[in-house]
Structure formats: C-alpha cells, structure tokens
Amino acid sequence: xxxxxxxxxxxxxxxxxxxxxxxxxxxxxxxxxxxxxxxxxxxxxxxxxxxxxxxxxxxxxxxxxxxxxxxxxxxxxxxxxxxxxxxxxxxxxxxxxxxxxxxxxxxxxxxxxxxxxxxxxxxxxxxxxxxxxxxxxxxxxxxxxxxxxxxxxxxxxxxxxxxxxxxxxxxxxxxxxxxxxxxxxxxxxxxxxxxxxxxxxxx
Length: 203
Fold this sequence. Notes:
Radius of gyration: 30 Å
Number of strands: 0
C-alpha cells in the first residue's frame, strides 16, 4: 500500500472516531431527555441498542487502523527484502571478480544502497556490514577473510527477514560465495584451507 493510501486510511479512522465521539455526546444528551419520557423497559432496550451500535462502530474503526498498519508493515518488509537482495547481488559480483575493479555505476549504486541500509537495516545487520567495510579497507578485497564476513552479513539479513538459519552456518555461505572467486584467482596464488569447487563437477 502506498504512503498516500496509509495516510488516507489513518485520517478516515480518526474522522470516524471523532464522529463517534460527537455522536455519542449528542446521543447521550438526547437519550437522557428521551429516556425520561419512555417506559422503563423501553428505555432499557434503547440504551442497550445504543451501546451495541457504539461498540460496533469502534470495532470497525479499529479494524481500519489495524489494516493500515499491517499493510504498511508488509510494504516496509518488501522494501527491506529488496534492499538486502540488491546489496547481496553486488557483493556477489565483487567477490566473483576480486582482481578487477568494478565499474563506477555499480560502485555508485552500492553507495546509495549502503545509505539506505542505515535506515532499513537492523542494528546487527549494520554492525556486520560496518565490519565488512572496515575489513575491505584494511586488508583489501582479496583478503581471504572477506567471503567469511560477507557470509556473516548475509546471515544477519536472513535472520532479519525471518528466514531459517538454524540449519545454515557461515561456512555453507562461504562455499557458495567462493565458487566463482576460486575460479577467477590466478593459478599462482595457492588455495589454503579448501580445494577448488566447481558447480559443473556435479552436472
């Protein structure tokens, strides 16, 4: 739901509540005068009907507000998911071409996404990403620790989106992230700790 729709929904709910309040006051004043001229049994039934009508109106107004909040939450979650996806795709490209500089357009896009991350990311996601930035600045993109830190960022993103991480660990994501990286590295650079993996071997 667009922000304008949420705003209109909230304004409608507030207007409805205001109308209910004003109507309740008028009804109460009118009821006091009216009930004085009614038989006791009729007055009791009228009072009950009035209370039920007011409760129904309040429930309807609350339903509008709840729907607006839920739709806003869904939109925020969708925006966050899209942000995380775009960040992860760019970092996948960076890891796949460690020895090559990324084009300026991609770097500019990543910078914009990082700014959005400060608004939409959870504290744990932001801290993991800051650690990644610090590691890249200190050790360079070709540092063997980079894929591991990227995996930590991805794990925090998955947690934030409610994805299962109980059966997934950092090394699993490192193996996925490192496939293309190992293929792009020069043959003169020794591979330490894990043999090269190729997706085509299992085909």
